[in-house]
Amino acid sequence: MKNLKYLVMGTLFGVILTKSEVVSWFRIQEMFRFQSFHMYGVIGSAIIVGILSIQLIKRNRLRTISGEEIRLADKQYSHGTWLGGLIFGLGWAITGACPGPLFAQLGSGAPAAAVMILAALAGTWTYSALRDKLPM
Amino acid sequence: MLDFLRQPWPWYVAGPLIGLTVPVLLLLGNKALGISSSLRHICAACVPAGLPFLTYNWRKEAWNLWFVLGIALGGLLGYRVLGHPEVIAISAATVRDLRAELHLTDFSGLLPRELFALENLSSWRGWVFMVLGGFLVGFGTRYAGGCTSGHAISGLSNLQWVSLVAVIGFFAGGLLMTWVVYPLLF
């Protein structure tokens, strides 16, 4: 089954998010109040390792395990980049979770996570319906 | 080894491992790390309602749904099997501020019960924290074209200036909520 490897990667990712406590609402509050280095350390070191890895992939023209060329799409700018970013940020500080942690919280057995995921789906759906009317 | 896995992992262990997810997903199958897209795929699969933005072959992106299913399994494994502290050791200053400003007394678990217990859905505060909060996460991430994983980790790793704009937006929104809106709510 070709998707099994992504299930395994997701599981590892979920364990890392949980064990590093970035799935904690309290940690997110601590971050937005600048009262601990923890979250900045996690995000910052993840980005540094990510940058180095991508440079390594690009410079060595590495291919996927099935021999495909690795392609990285450029992110496209729109007004939504900052407007949507701002809206997500407001939600991030309320729920104390971005989408990844919401799924990890659900797995950890927090019932509120189910409500928040349903609400997030409603938010995504509403965006899809209003897309033509939003500044882009 | 098991004892090591059981304690909370420090940032310098967890951060690099999260960063390594980016190249591993690329090497495994040209997949760009990004989690909020799964919300779009679920909408497209369940309630496309003829909307152009939800009309596409979401099955081609099924890997993303397997990935988030894995995250949930990882949450179960990391929290219930590998164990967790009853109270997460956040800084004393945060505890003091949350007590004084948000009147929290219970610091156990991943989410403060006083705000996120399901019974709170009978009051406006529960709706703000669970429903409005979740809605803003789902709406904002799609409008911004990504979340913390897609923009902050994946996008910045690939030196995308667009992702930097998005991440500045994420932080501006979070700071606005924490420092301006919270004091009005409590």
TrEMBL record, chain A:
Q: Name one Pfam family in it.
A: DUF6691
InterPro entries the record matches: DUF6691
Transmembrane regions: 7-26, 38-57, 81-104, 110-130
Q: Which UniProt keywords apply?
A: Membrane, Transmembrane, Transmembrane helix
Designated name of the protein: Uncharacterized protein
Name its species: Hymenobacter swuensis DY53
Write the lineage as a comma-separated list. Bacteria, Pseudomonadati, Bacteroidota, Cytophagia, Cytophagales
UniProtKB/TrEMBL annotation, chain B:
Q: Where in the cell is it found?
A: Cell inner membrane
* Family classification: Belongs to the TsuA/YedE (TC 9.B.102) family.
One of this protein's Pfam families, by short name? Sulf_transp
Full protein name:
Uncharacterized protein
Q: Which GO terms describe its cellular component?
A: plasma membrane
Question: Could you list the residue ranges that cross the membrane?
Answer: 12-29, 64-82, 126-144, 164-185
Q: Which organism is it from?
A: Hymenobacter swuensis DY53
Q: Which UniProt key words apply to this protein?
A: Cell inner membrane, Cell membrane, Membrane, Transmembrane, Transmembrane helix, Transport
Q: Which InterPro entries match?
A: Sulf_transp_TsuA/YedE (IPR007272)
- What topology in the membrane does the UniProt record assign? Multi-pass membrane protein
Instruction: Give the chief site where it resides.
Output: membrane
